[in-house]
Amino acid sequence: MNKRTSSDSPLNLAYLIATQIALIVGASPSANARERFNPAHLETGAGGLATSDLSAFEEHGGQQPGRYRVDIYINDSKVDTRDVEFRIQQNPQGQSTLQPCLSLNDLASWGVMIQRYPTLGQPDASCARLSAIPQASADFRFSHQQLLLSFPQSSLTNAARGWVDPARWDDGIPAALVNYSVSGANNRDKKGGGGNAQYINLRPGLNIGPWRLRNYTTWNRNSQNGESGTSTKWDTVYTYAQRDIRTLKSRLTLGDSTTPSDIFDSIPFRGGQLASDDDMLPESLRGYAPVVRGIARTHAQVTIRQNGYIIYQTYVSPGSFEITDMYPTGGSGDLFVTIKESDSSEQFLVVPYASVPVLQREGRLKYTMTTGVYRAYDNGIDRAPLAAGTAIYGLPAGYTVYGGGQFSNRYQALALGIGKNLGPIGALSTDITQAWSQQKDRPREEGQSWRIRYSKNLVQTGTNFTFAGYRYATSGYWDMQDVLNTWRDGRRYVMPERRRNRAELTVSQNLFQIPGNLALSAIVEDYWGTRKRMESYSASYNGSYKGISFGLSYSYNIHSAEHYGQRSGRTYDRDGLFALTMSIPLEKLFGGHPTYASYMMNTSKQGNTTQNLSLGGTLLTDNNLSWSVMQGYGSQGQGSNSGINADWRASYAETLIGYARDRYSERVNYGLQGGIVAHRNGLTFSQPLGETMALIAAPGAQNVAVLGQSGVKTDRFGYTVVPYLSPYRKNDLTLNTETLADDAELALATQTVIPTRGALVKASYETSLGKRVLMTLRKRHGASVPFGAMVIDPASPTPKSFIVGDGGQVYLTGLKDAGQLEVSWSHDPDGRCRVNYSLTQSASGIINLYAQCL
Questions:
Q1: Judging by beta carbons within 10 Å of its beta carbon (0-12, 13-18, 19+), is residue 815 exposed, middle or buried?
Q2: What residue segments make up the domains of the chain, in order of their start?
Q3: CATH for 693-768?
Q4: Residues whose CB is less than 8 angstroms from the CB of residue 548 and which lie 6 or more positions away in sequence, other chains included
Q5: Domain range 291-351, CATH class
Q6: Quick check: pTM over 0.90?
Q7: Which of 306, 346, 352, 350 is CA-nearest to residue 329?
Q8: 497-526, pLDDT tens digit by residue?
């Protein structure tokens, strides 16, 4: 008969086992002979009885061979987490140790140059011979579940920091998915009028292998009280198929898309496009950073600082070296390089650094090739055939050259430019575009456009200076979209305005004595054939003090246009706006939940002033309920206004509701948005889907939260969707084990996925459903089952073994209400027995159970 009790706090059996093993291996070994521990000493009070075969534990750090989930490190850098088979092998000192069984493909994916070592093994060999690589070693740290691999640097590829082997990129699982957003509002004015509005946004998609099919469709409905008729409209924004081309580090798009805006203004098209994708590069190779070159006399440490921060550190061999994998830091600021030799002497270098958006690293080619037809916003505009291409290439010495072309039967343009990192004086790029155009019912024209961009960061004063100037030197220059929009059906079209000059200036200044940032900006535009002019100036200051954030801003705008058909440039809009904002944290008053009280005031040159006071924050365990209440007042007859809003990010959708009123009307608005994913295991509802996603699969483990994902929990089948992942990067997905039910266990709480763009990758978690039991095992004559005995549950879907600790105690998970266990502690017939058990169905938590092994 089994005796059982219930316990709310689990016994850390692993600690007990580790303590016993420490007693076994803790004594210092003899210099001339290997000491052996007699396991019979563990069976105190039971002399003469059988003991477990613990030979595997007699070596320092010894463990049973088998498969273990481990974090894999190469030269102290984590490269992977996976199940690895460990086998007992003899090391050069004649000791038996657990060594990993790693394939040649495994080593190659981690950057080991296997072709240099033909004796590593045959390509189809299950385990590579690590001893074939001089000075290579493997150390299995069982207590940390870590496999530490050490290889000489000469055996590894010179991979950039953050590099992930493309062979590990995951295209995901086949799936159908849809993003939906439903919103609406009921309006009522004080005169008895009003109306209703509804909007639906649908973004269905299909994933098959590397292909992504996407669509964007909207529906809009408006009705007004007291008016006959209701307007309803369906629109398709885009439809396209897309996949990556790994060998080219590029992306192929077929269908509706837009051209990039690096050199020309973006153009919507329907057709095909092949474009390089920077996301496929390691983060350390994206953007612009200069090549750092130097010479080391000895084995040296190289440290690079920018603006006082260490941004890079590595170790180099004697001789010349190049550093090409620095992460882009943005802006500018000279790089200070320190080469510390092995004799502690130091060399110092200064590498000037500044950047503008077009600059590329040395040797980097960024390109696009597009062909198709013009996709206008208006169906009445002709779908003219077009082609376009751009290329940007990084040269030595901080130069970048770029150019491109746009071609149609009604428009042609060629562009050529150059950029340069000028070091101490900043970064500069300049280009020229020559265009030939034919507008409808107008003579053919041609013109040129010049552009210059400049950026400089003054580190000593904390000033960042950016200038971009556009000058359309001739009146015959037009953009491609302006020209193609004139070719439409018989309806009258509006002639586009031709910008002649446009200048932009942005200056930001860090205030070191007073915490905060000061920003100034100016934009000035004028046009050909008219005295119309646009000017916009702004100044702002934002700072914080003891958690209180505040801001001041002022903007001044001038707009002018032709007046009554006369090109006088008469001003029709001239206004200035001053704004003050302040936010005070109030978490301590709301149980630690982020909560803020905010005040905003703005006033215009005409004296129109509005003020708003609001209180808002988040609630619930995951802070997935956002709320706010607001009260405001406006001058010049606007009167008071108020509003309240709530937004709940649940596991299966996001809902929002709000109410607002002022002296003229009141409105109730509502919304529901989320995602639906259909996969081979069923249908999963989720929060709104991003571009790249993961399907969490923990069958049977319901209502389990995902760490770092507000409101994301598994459904009753154990599935959920993590809506946002970074493509071509390692993404760690961790389930919160504290939210597991009493009858659920996870073999591993974290999985790492590396998705391609747009993929739905599956992260599978091995779950064990059943009771958790701390069982004390007694043999037929009442003695405890020996320490180290193995317990197997043959009814488990995946075979699992458990180790008996001191006093015959073993911690078991995933047990059914009744069943049989197999126990073994030696190869002798008398070293085995079976346990029949029966559990109370209503028992929860960890059950203490005494059972006899027969």
A1: buried
A2: 1-53+771-854, 59-168, 291-351, 693-768
A3: 2.60.40.2610
A4: 582, 583, 584, 585
A5: mainly beta
A6: no
A7: 306
A8: 788 888 888 888 877 666 788 888 888 888
